[in-house]
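Late entry, written up from scratch paper. The run itself happened at the end of the previous shift, but nothing got recorded in the book at the time, so transcribing now.
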Amino acid sequence: MNRKLTITISEAVYEGLLRIIGRRRISQFIENLARPHVMPQDPEASDRDMAADQAREREAMAWSEAVVADHSKH
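Output as recorded:
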């Protein structure tokens, strides 16, 4: 469930948000900034997020394969 919140910010910050983030995306931007500061950390969710990052997973796999290959030489 979403809740509506009224906040007060300076005109300059508001204009910057409109220019950089866009009119229909400010709420999500602010929620993404605030979430890590107010929500309990869920290690399982963090693991799922990392696993979903395919570029990171490819780098991790390449690193682990290099370590195994290097170790097998000794």
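The chain has two domains: 1-39, 42-74.
(Scratch paper discarded after transcription.)
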